[in-house]
Every structure is written in structure tokens, then in C-alpha cells.
Amino acid sequence: MKQNAKAIQLELDWLHEILKTRSTINSRPESGPEDLLDLPAPDLSRIESDYSTLIQNYELGPAERFLIILAAVPHIRPQLLDMFTARNQHTQQIYTEFGVRKGKTGHGILPTGEMVLFILSGKNLEKRFFYQSLFDPQGVLFREGIIRISGTDPEESFLNGVLTLSPEILELITTGKPQKPTFGPDFPAQQLKTSMDWEDLVLEEDILLQLKELESWLKHRDYLLEEWEMNRILKPGFKALFHGPPGTGKTLTAALLGKKMGLDVYRIDLSLMISKYIGETEKNLARVFERAERKDWILFFDEADALFGKRTAVNDSHDRYANQEVSYLLQRIEDFAGLVILATNLKTNLDEAFMRRFQSVIYFPVPGFEQRQELWKKAFPKKAHMDPEIDLYEIAKKYDLTGGSILNAVRHSLLMALETKERIVRLEDLREGIRREYQKAGRTI
Q: Which stretch is the leader sequence (predicted)?
């Protein structure tokens, strides 16, 4: 943190010198350098900081560094932009050329694309056109998601948008600890974690073999596409469908696959994804996919038939926009370069046109007797004392429950055991837990 502060202070001093020089040139055009970026950027090569590493890793020049530090100013030195509050003496308005945007909740100034071009080019059109290339979506800062421009109306110039530094980069250069994205309406995805290990997964052998293909793709995709040049005929991503009854291990398998391969898994909340405001769904979705591609996340859509089901008939404008949002989401999944897993309880509810796009379709059935027996054994803690009457072999043979239902029944029996002095798991409590699981499914023992 100390080294980051040292590096960023030097960048802020450099930015302040640029801003001061722009102010001087405005009143005396003949003064100052021909190009403000000729003012030498500080040498950070000897400062071991996350900010310096960022610059070195992406080989950022003065122009890119200028954008980053300007975007960071509202978060670390907001008063540096107070010079842009100056008003025209005749109109009493802030000068239009400043490209000023004010914060929604405070009085601070937010940097915009127009502000960048004003600082670097002033009234020089040739320079303005030259520096406008800094906002090329294929430029390193925008391509890697380090910076974006946001908050523009479709009818306005995109340069009126606010220059925004990604939260991960902001945290990295200020605290030295990049933060995970925060789950909410603006980011409808939550990291899927588990304390279990791959060895705890109880599935039939043919399912494990099918999952092996997903592992192989995650390990060898770059070699497959680049070295063997299969990118000529194959799309870069991989799409898998997990289908089967609730509680059969679809979500757990996705979490464990990510854990085994050392990749973060993010579950998409479809209820937050679909916005009542036209266009907001696409924005929310874009945020998730952009981060996922940069971070090499696995994306997991649970209860996917809620969104990817058969298309609705277009009876009104709401139906039309709903279908447009689904089409947009399908296209983003199609273009995603990583692994996307969709899970559903009812495969027949999915749109047939989308079904053809999966590279792998894996069915998670209700576990058979051998799997149930293994699940019962693994569900109880080693320290638990069991009633001698409990025969897990007979219980597994008699009751066809899913893994999720077995865990629920075990949880009930353990809680009841903790209510007694002996703390012994009793057969009657275990049977009661099983009865409740049957009742949930509309079945009787």
C-alpha cells in the first residue's frame, strides 16, 4: 500500500502539471509544449507497486496512464478537478468545452471523454481527432476492461460519458487487494463456492466420464484452438447443459469443477438479470460477460428454462422485448469464449433451437442404490454417534432420495440428536427426516 501511494502520488503530480499547463495555454496559447503529453511521465520502474506492475504488464504509454489516473482522481484526489467548475462570466455557465459531469449525490466533478479531449487538445481539431483514438474499444484499456465510458444517452455523443475505472483495478492500485465484484442489481451474479472436494462427489461412472470432457476442454482449449488451428472451424467457447431432478448435484458439480480447475464459478441470478426497463437487461448482462471473459470465469445459469424456455408468442410489446432480450442473451452465450453451464430440472422446457448449440448435455438422474448408500455414508459426520438400529444399507435400499434430500434428512436427525443429553442419532428422527422429504415431493412412505 505504501509503494502504491508513492507511485500514484507521482502520477497525480504529473497530472496536476498537465492540468496547470492546459490552464496556462488557454490564456496564453503561445506558452507551453506543443503536446501536453510531452511533459515527462514519472519513472516508476524502481517502485515495486501494483500500479507499476499494471503499467509494465500492459506496456502502457503516457496517454493510457493519463486516462487511468484521471479516471481514478474522483476516488483519491477529487479536488484536483475543481478547476473545471470555472464559469463563463457572460452566461454564468460552466464552459461547455470542459465536458463537465457532476456526481449524482455530491458536488464532485467526474471526468468524461470530452474532458480528456479538452485537456489534451484544447481547440486544436487535428489533435482532438488524433486523441479520440484513445477511446477505441480495441485499445488495451477498453479491451481489457480497465476503463470504460458509461452513462451516455443513445442520442448523445459517447464522449459525454463518464470515464470509469474498473472496481478491481481501483481496489488493486489503492489497497493492493483486488476485490470480488459485489452481487446486486448492477451485477446479477454471485460466486459459487463449496467446502467439499471432487472426491466427495457421488455420481454414476458415465456422468463422470462426460464431465471429463469439460475438464479436458478447460485444460487444452488454447492448444486445441491455437496450436491445432481449430479456431478456423470451432467457436471459442464451450456450452454444457446439466439437466435432471432437483437435488441431484448439478449446482454442486459446477462448483466442484471450478474448484478442481482453479477457476471461479459465478451463478447468474435470472430474476435480477431481467429488468423491467428496456435495455437494462443487456447492460446488466454485458457487465457479467465482460468480466467473465477477462477473469476466465465459469458461468452457471441455474433454472435456465425460466429464461431459455420456448419462445413466447408475440401478443404485445412486452412479449416482443422479452424475446429480444432472450435472443441477445443467447448470442452473448454463443460468443462467450469460456465455459457456460446451464442447469434445468426440465430439459423439455428448453427451446429446441438453443438445444442444438450445446457441446455437452449431461443428465443427472435420481441416484441408484449404490450411489444412495455412498451418499448416506458421506453425509454423517465422523464424530456423530449412531443408534445401532440404523442400517444405512437398508435405508439406501428402501428410500429413493436425491442427494439434496438425503442431506436434509441427515440435518434433521443431527439437530434432533443435539437436543438430547446423549447426542445420539436416533432411527425415528432419521425416518422423520425422510418422511418430510417424501412429503415435499408429494409422496408417502
A: none
